[in-house]
Amino acid sequence: MVSWLPYTIDTLIDAFMGFITPAYVYEICCWGAYYNSAMNPLIYAFFYPWFRKAIKLILSGKILKGHSSTTSLFSE
């Protein structure tokens, strides 16, 4: 939310003010949103074991096996 809030506020306000935001401010806001998108996989990998298991299945190629559709990602 911290990464997207400046971009969202700038975009909403700028549209009503006649697009007066300097280009460098807009670029900083865009890069903040890009940073959020880049950090999401790391956050998921750090906090969610099911995400780590899914990534391991994909990277190892086991996702292409016939029985992969019945694989449980959640511990019970």
From TrEMBL:
<keyword id="KW-0297">G-protein coupled receptor</keyword>
<dbReference type="InterPro" id="IPR050569">
    <property type="entry name" value="TAAR"/>
</dbReference>
<keyword id="KW-0675">Receptor</keyword>
<dbReference type="InterPro" id="IPR017452">
    <property type="entry name" value="GPCR_Rhodpsn_7TM"/>
</dbReference>
<keyword id="KW-1133">Transmembrane helix</keyword>
<keyword id="KW-0807">Transducer</keyword>
<keyword id="KW-0812">Transmembrane</keyword>
<protein>
    <submittedName>
        <fullName>Trace amine-associated receptor 8c</fullName>
    </submittedName>
</protein>
<feature type="domain" description="G-protein coupled receptors family 1 profile">
    <location>
        <begin position="1"/>
        <end position="44"/>
    </location>
</feature>
<keyword id="KW-0472">Membrane</keyword>
<keyword id="KW-1003">Cell membrane</keyword>
